[in-house]
């Protein structure tokens, strides 16, 4: 089994990563590393999935899907590296006649920040852990990575780290561009290490905030990109409920019970209209939820928290449990949901608990009578990764639906119409982040722009061509898209 | 005269700014505001310059130049708003056949963060104060601004705020998109106000760090873009000294004494070779520095700090003062410079003081014998806004000069060859920021990309066209440059 890293182990890993950084300057080697890592993960898929399933109980189908996603993501970042638009090259030629003062020759692009610390998630042993998006985007940016493994899947972490290091060697890079450390103390030491220049985190609000605070308190503070927690509100309009109550109820059940509710994008609060169409929605939701099999959570602590969390919520005045969530026997939990009248949530009070994330297969259906109640409840929510609205057919070109979409926008990093937030497509336009506590920064952890987290701009002034990085020379030997004298090129 | 803002005053200003935010959604109104503000500043230039000169003693020529720069900057951000590339629009159409899973329709752009707190600088009463780059870029992004005025120029601040508010009214916007508060306590309250969503700062390390810490310690932390301090190292190669000792000495004197050394980009540490060419450089520097007139610093406290700072530095063993900086009589200070052997700086010790910024007309010339000494001294410096190298003619295509440029890059946000760092061109490729303490983030406070500080991305998934912001519709009614299905358009 793995051993907890000592202070010396952490120091050694960070120093080795820093020493490996210059080799990552070669963008060709970076994309080769990412593509090789994808291929090696796929080659070793049966072994990885078996190891991860033994540690997380997420099941082979889900883990095979996650592995495919992880490999896809590695290759997508290799494409980003090869294209070079992420370097954000801007060139302004000298203009002696510029006003109010003459302009020198200025050439800007982005350079890697240096060693990145990645804190792996419990709920995605691959896609948000050692070989996941934080690691892939940091390597793509040219930053070596030291991963703090999640204690929930240490063997999977070791296995994936060995694969990434093998991929580095095959790409002609030092293996130390990726390494892994284990243990709580190692994580704390990592974020404070003088040679660590940025951190990525996926996990709980308490753990993430503690590390964010440590990053900010350093003599030299560093960027901390943490994804901490999200309620992911959903609003169902009366028209949507009238038209598709059964479909929405079933869709909601499928979304909030997916992977036993262990997604950061799980819809945790659903505003559904009072009255008959809303009743039908709740009935359909109850049927589909009852049919969901009991599931095993990632670990015993999460199970305890879930059972206690749903019990505390269900005990609040006016809260009912049409399908009671909770202990499912033999380490399992049962999916369920709660309902409450919106009037209970329009003012500060004990029902605020219902607006806090509860990890696991539970959601809260808030029944509203008026649009004002919807506005009021939404106004009391913290930041989210996602916000969703279900509308009726005629509302697709309706001003009040447009106003509702506009009202959801300040709440979240992704706004969905007539969909479910679970399932985060890896795509250039994806944004997986949102106002605090969803994210501690304005960045995304999924999609092409996740690479921006690990870069900083630098500008060269009046620098002779031979002394410039090739990306900034007029002849553009690498064919990189850039903006020259105010105009996009390539 | 102005009065210090009470807690209620600050709260009122922030709430009024937040209430004005929706009006700033209109990009046309934003660019009209910025252009009108530029015109009104120019119209009132004599009055503004007179007021600022009475408060700062910076002199009419410098202040007229600063006003021209400020107006240019406002118009440059209006151009940025009109073009729309800053919205970073990325559109991925739905792809049901995408691997590893079908892709929904995803459309991303950037939205304003909300109310921005701006902490004005002492040394630029216009360009980095009320009507300066932080305010201009925040308004361009669509964020209302509450400025904490610098106590060194309260009347100038009031005057400029009135002009900006008048410009807002003329552009059909609420005047409260800009307001000003005065007083130390007001500044502390501002960064902690729940409705403030980001902050920009230009000033000292101690003040900036205290506000940065307060921003990070909030229940909901906010981005804090602070420019705190910079030494701006310069390396003169032996070849450069041999070819242009006199020119470099005179250029250095002009740069470090400009505006009595009160620029954040003042070259504060110069690595010059030992031996005859370096001696000639020092002689030329001494002549030009001696010829510089005594100057008045921004306020009495700065003068005291400067006099004490240069005295403490000059008293270090091995430090000489070929032209002694210090008290110039009648509120003035004399420009001067110190010299020291590089060997004194290659290890930790009392001479570390020489690697800290000393605001005012002083620089430190460090005489080196070997390249190793240069590498060692550079390796001991904190982050900087700029780093400069002066090279000889033949070195413009020389591998060792290229290596030196590469070595300066990790130290700074702007690298210059054969130039002087004072004078920061307002241009798209400009980057005025650098590793901590130069900046508390990876952003710039000058140039088009300064707008990025006040935005966050949001993605719409499967959203009907009529419910989307016009910037994200397929017909692109506003003609905004964007990336669609991986390809740049427009």
From TrEMBL, chains A, B:
Q: Which PANTHER family match?
A: ALDEHYDE DEHYDROGENASE-RELATED, SUCCINATE-SEMIALDEHYDE DEHYDROGENASE, MITOCHONDRIAL
Which InterPro entries does its entry note? Answer: Ald_DH/histidinol_DH, Ald_DH_C, Ald_DH_N, Aldehyde_DH_dom, Aldehyde_DH_Superfamily, ALDH_KGSADH
Which parts of the sequence are annotated with region: Disordered?
Answer: 465-490
UniProt KW keywords: Oxidoreductase
Organism's domain of life?
Answer: Bacteria
Keyword Oxidoreductase annotated: yes
Which one Pfam family would you cite for this protein? Aldedh
What is the protein's species of origin?
Streptomyces humicola
Stated name of the protein: Aldehyde dehydrogenase (NADP(+))
Segments forming domain Aldehyde dehydrogenase: 2-434
């Amino acid at each position: 089994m793995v051993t907890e890293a000592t202070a010396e182990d952490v120091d050694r890993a960070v120093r080795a990563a820093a020493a490996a950084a210059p080799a990552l300057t070669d963008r060709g080697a970076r994309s080769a590393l990412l593509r090789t890592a994808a291929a090696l993960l796929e080659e070793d898929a049966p072994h990885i999935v078996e190891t991860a399933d033994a540690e997380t109980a997420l099941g082979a189908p889900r883990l095979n899907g996650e592995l495919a996603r992880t490999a896809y993501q590695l290759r997508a970042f290799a494409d980003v590296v090869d294209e070079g638009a992420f370097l954000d090259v801007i060139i302004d030629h000298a203009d002696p006649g510029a006003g109010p003062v003459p302009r020198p020759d200025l050439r800007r692009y982005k350079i890697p920040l240096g060693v990145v610390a990645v804190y792996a998630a419990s709920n995605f042993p691959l896609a948000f852990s050692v070989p996941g998006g934080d690691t892939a985007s940091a390597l793509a940016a040219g930053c070596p990575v030291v991963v703090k493994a999640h204690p929930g899947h240490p063997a999977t972490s070791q296995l994936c780290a060995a694969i990434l290091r093998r991929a580095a060697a095959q790409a002609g890079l030092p293996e130390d561009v990726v390494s892994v450390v284990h243990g709580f103390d190692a994580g704390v030491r990592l974020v404070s290490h003088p040679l660590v220049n940025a951190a990525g985190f996926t996990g709980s609000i308490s753990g993430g905030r503690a590390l964010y605070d440590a990053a900010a308190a350093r003599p030299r503070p560093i960027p901390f990109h943490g994804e901490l927690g999200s309620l992911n509100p959903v609003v169902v309009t009366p028209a949507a409920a009238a038209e598709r109550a059964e479909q929405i109820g079933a869709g909601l059940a499928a979304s909030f019970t997916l992977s036993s509710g262990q997604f950061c994008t799980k819809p945790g609060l659903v505003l559904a209209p009072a009255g008959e169409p809303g009743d039908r929605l709740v009935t359909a939701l109850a049927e589909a939820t009852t049919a969901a099999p009991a599931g095993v959570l990632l670990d015993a602590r999460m199970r305890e928290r879930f059972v206690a969390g749903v019990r505390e919520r269900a005990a609040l005045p006016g809260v009912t449990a049409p399908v009671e969530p909770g202990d499912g026997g033999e380490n399992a939990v049962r999916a369920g949901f709660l309902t409450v009248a919106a009037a209970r949530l329009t003012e500060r009070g004990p029902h605020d608990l219902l607006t806090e994330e509860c990890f696991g297969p539970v959601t809260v259906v808030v029944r509203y009578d008026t649009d004002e109640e919807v506005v009021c409840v939404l106004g009391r929510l913290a930041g989210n990764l996602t916000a969703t609205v279900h509308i009726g057919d005629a509302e697709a070109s309706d001003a009040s639906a447009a106003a509702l979409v506009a009202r959801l926008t300040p709440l979240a990093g992704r706004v969905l119409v007539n969909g479910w937030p679970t399932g985060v497509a890896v795509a250039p336009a994806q944004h997986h982040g949102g106002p605090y506590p969803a994210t501690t920064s304005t960045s995304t952890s999924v999609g092409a722009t996740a690479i921006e987290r690990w870069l900083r701009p630098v500008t060269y002034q009046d620098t002779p061509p031979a002394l410039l990085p090739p990306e900034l020379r007029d002849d553009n030997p690498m064919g990189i898209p850039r903006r020259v004298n105010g105009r996009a090129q390539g």
